[in-house]
Specification:
With 72 residues, this protein is mainly α. 69% of the residues lie in helices and 0% in strands.
Amino acid sequence: MTNDAKNPTPTLSELLNRLDLSHLPQTEIIRLQAEAARAEYISECVAKVSSKIKALFAARKTEVNASVIRHA
């Protein structure tokens, strides 16, 4: 599955809105929407933190490699 501009991957909230939830009480629908929004937020935060950690290790790796290089 590719994530391009023409067909962006739908979010969990968008997928939840596509479901027929008419059999559920309004409080349950609100709870489901809140949990979906919370899950998306946590997922976004984890992705940001992991990318920052990856960038930190990449920067540290280049520093170590640069310090090891010795000229004759």
